[in-house]
């Protein structure tokens, strides 16, 4: 509605644009290209580490610039900030450390926030 996302963007949070639909569309595009004698070059990327590097302040600033409701932005900011983590190896734990950047992996909100920032 606000044209914040490209029409080429797919994701489970965009109505009618699932990742399964994206795979079917790209398969169709590749098949057509190959049938017409073309070549396909593919680069696979893994965004797992990229989610760990999302800076909170620029993301929050971008949300404000889009005119998103302030209460929603404050909720997202609370979701991202003041988090702590530690590492466990067998029965041994590291000390707790503040999480200064990143989006919690496995969340539904994470991919949306990542796309908004980048």
Description:
The model has no long low-confidence stretch (mean pLDDT about 85). The strands form two sheets. Strands 1-4 form a two-stranded antiparallel ribbon. It is about 45% helix and about 10% strand. The chain is mainly alpha-helical. It is flat, with a radius of gyration of 19 Å. The two termini are about 20 Å apart. It has helices spanning about 20-35, 50, 55-65, 70-80, 110-115, and strands at about 85, 90, 90-95, 95-100. α3 runs antiparallel to α4 and α3 packs across α5. β2 and β3 form a beta hairpin.
C-alpha termini separation: 19 Å
**Biggest sheet: strands, sense, closure?**
2 strands, antiparallel
The quaternary organization reads as: single chain
Total of helices: 5
State the order of secondary-structure elements, H for helix, E for strand.
Answer: HHHHEEEEH
Shape: flat
Nearest-integer average pLDDT: 85
Which strand order do you get reading across the main beta sheet?
1-4
Query: What is the strand content?
Result: 5-15%
Regions with little confidence, pLDDT below 50 for 5+ residues: none
- Please give the radius of gyration in angstroms: 19 Å
Q: Count the strands?
A: 4
Which secondary-structure class do the elements indicate? mainly alpha
Helix content: 40-55%
């Amino acid at each position: 509605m606000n044209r914040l996302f490209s029409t080429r963007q797919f994701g489970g949070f965009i109505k009618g644009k699932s990742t399964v639909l994206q795979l079917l569309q790209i398969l169709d595009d590749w098949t057509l290209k190959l049938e017409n004698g073309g070549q396909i070059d593919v680069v696979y990327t893994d965004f797992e580490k990229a989610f760990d590097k999302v800076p909170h302040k620029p993301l929050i600033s971008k949300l404000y610039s889009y005119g998103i409701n302030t209460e929603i932005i404050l909720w997202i900011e609370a979701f991202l900030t003041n988090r702590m983590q530690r590492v466990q190896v067998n029965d041994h734990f590291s000390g707790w450390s503040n999480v200064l950047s990143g989006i919690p992996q496995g969340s539904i909100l994470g991919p949306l926030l990542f796309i908004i920032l980048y």
